[in-house]
Amino acid sequence: MSNLITGRAGVPFGRQLRAELRKLIDTRAGRWLLIVIFSVMPAVVAGMLIIARPATLTYSQFIDVTSSPERIILPILGILTVTTEWSQRTGLLTFTLEPNRRRVLLAKATATLLLGIAVIAVGFLSAAIGNLLGVALRDGAGDWTFGVGGYRDIVVVLLVGLLQGLAYGMLLLGSAAAIVVYYVVPNLSSLLFTAVSGLKEAASWLDLQKAQAAIYLHDVTAREWAQYATAALIWVVLPGVLGFVRVLRSEIKSG
Amino acid sequence: MTRSGGENAIEVHGLTKRYGRTTAVEDVSFDARWGAITGFLGPNGAGKSTTMRMMVGLASPTAGHATVLGVDYRRLPDPGRQAGVLLDASAQHPGRAGREVLHLAATVLGLPDKRVDEVLTMVGLTPAEARRRTGGYSLGMRQRLGIGHALLGQPRVLILDEPANGLDPAGIHWMRGLLRGFADEGGSVLLSSHLLHEVEVLADDLVVVGGGSIVARGRKSDLLATAGTFCRSADLPGLAAALREAGLAFTRAPGDSLTVSAPPGEVARAAMAAGIVLEELRPAAAGGLEEIFLRLTADHAREDSMEGARR
User: Do residues B41 and B193 make contact, with C-beta atoms less than 8 angstroms apart?
Assistant: First the structure.
């Protein structure tokens, strides 16, 4: 038996991407997570329709309430996309079918970003429907003012949060550890920067939550973007690079 | 472009893996021929799984390298279509249906849906079983799914780690037929096991590892035919001296007995010359292989119980 092995090593990216998209929805846990993600935004919109004062029922207010759960959920989505391959040991199959781990990670990141964009779109859609219903049902203010810049700011912050989740997932390779670190460490950082008076000025550059808060207020200045970028470099890019290297170098085991 | 698939489907050259100061695999070399089943034998913890992980690029060797179809596994285009790999049938997402596991792999390999159904039929999982989540599967069902996963891309090489684990006797019989057929059609199978008898009937070639190193390697017929004589005497030191006198190599066997690397006639002559009474004299069954294997397994069992005591 003799033949020639020709062609590019590994699997074409498109196929790997399709498989990674499938993995987001083909397990019971994954489906539940998606059901929760997609139902929480209509739920908060409904809540606001019931309890908020009619004068506050505006598009931008609805976007505010829908983006809060997104900010919490998207990073978890990023974390779990990576860590399930280790916690459920499916990495054994994944990285045998495609030994190029770079390409697997890129496919995972692309798949989660696509899902993240869908989630954000549903958020905007829920907010718009909420605003229409506000006018119809409760005689709400119904103001549609929301600049293009606002969309950009929200999309950037949410997707950076998703990437942060991916980064922590790759760095820690365990769901629980990554989720804990994701929630605890930035809070500790904020605490440190608020408590130590000498660090207050540096906080705008080094503390991701503080830098991010400025983006959320919109009308962002160039300086604030620079501060956000610097903080993201420390809290997202750095763990992402370290995690990437860790995945490339780690041994994939069954036990 | 790389020439491949010459005489050997798999070639392993001096693979070594160290974790800190622990050596898990030490200078392991062997080949797996086309059209043959190679049994990779050794007690649990002998380094079989680590060696296999290095062969498919899941672990990087400290030294040495391996080729599959003539190239590094990681350089194969669509590796799942060249080599079918099953390393741990239990490593499955419990919330994913069996069919979906194959479907995902078919997506990665660019195979049509109907290939998934073909494979499910081949490994004997019913449509109802395939729809169930793997969390509820027995180990035997997981092995069938795992073997199906390995066969999905119609590979010409199979690399299977303990595939018979958890299969019932009917399942083992089925797997033997499947792998024999695969090899008879020209494919190459490498399968590991910690049970000699499991692969003795199936393998054409054997590679035996213990403590991370190779202890025996070759055609099964040669290894099993290794001449040897089992003998026993009440005067063991006398017998040992007599054998040394005659220039015969021997090893201590359980009980007051020795295994000698010589035919029974020579042993009898040596004993008679020294006036030693032999109480038992017969060809050692299955040559030295079974004994090597038993000794390895016994060593390992002792280590295990010591570890248990320390815990």
Answer: yes
Chain B touched by A93 (CB under 8 Å): yes
Q: What domains does chain B contain, in order, with CATH numbers?
A: 8-224 (3.40.50.300), 229-283 (3.30.70)
**Are residues A93 and B91, on separate chains, in Cβ contact within 8 Å?**
yes
Contact indicator for B26, B176 with CB cutoff of 8 Å: no
B105: Cα within 13 Å, side-chain hemisphere: 36
In this prediction, residue A44 carries a pLDDT of 96
Q: Which of A2, A4, A5 to mutate to test the interface with B (most CBs of B within 10 A)?
A: A5
Residue in B closest to A26 by C-alpha = B96
Print the SS3 string covering B11-59.
EEEEEEEEECCEEEEEEEEEEEECCCEEEEECCCCCCHHHHHHHHCCCC
In this structure, what DSSP letter does residue A6 have? -
Cβ–Cβ under 8 Å, residues A131 and A56: no
Residues of A in contact with B157 (CB under 8 A): none
* Cα separation values, A100 from A240, B58, B77, B195, B295, Å: 18, 10, 11, 34, 40
* Cα–Cα distance for residue pair A154/B252, rounded to 1 Å: 77
Q: Per-residue pLDDT tens, chain B, 311 aa: give them.
A: 334 446 799 999 999 999 999 999 999 999 999 999 999 999 888 999 999 999 999 999 999 999 999 999 999 999 999 999 999 999 999 999 999 999 999 999 999 999 999 999 999 999 999 999 999 999 999 999 999 999 999 999 999 999 999 999 999 999 999 999 999 999 999 999 998 888 888 999 999 998 899 988 888 877 776 657 888 898 889 999 999 998 888 888 777 788 888 888 889 999 999 999 998 888 776 555 777 777 776 765 555 444 444 44
B204 three-class SS: coil
Q: Please give the ipTM for the structure prediction.
A: 0.92
Interface test mutation site (partner A, options B58, B69, B143, max chain A beta carbons within 10 A): B58
Extract long-range pairs of B277-283: CB within 8 Å, 24+ residues apart: B277/B233, B277/B234, B277/B235, B278/B231, B278/B232, B278/B233, B278/B239, B279/B232, B279/B233, B279/B234, B280/B230, B280/B231, B280/B232, B281/B229, B281/B230, B281/B231, B281/B232, B282/B229, B282/B230, B282/B231, B283/B227, B283/B228, B283/B229, B283/B230
Write down how long chain A is: 255
The ranges assigned to domains in chain A are 13-249
Contacts of A23 in chain B (CB under 8 A): 104
B97: which DSSP letter? B
Residues in A closer than 8 angstroms to B47, CB to CB, are none
Query: From start to end of A67-200, where are the E strands?
Result: none
Grade residue A196 by pLDDT with cuts at 50, 70 and 90.
confident
* DSSP secondary structure letter of residue B73: G
Any CB–CB contact under 8 A between A23 and chain B?
A: yes
Amino acid B227: pLDDT: 58
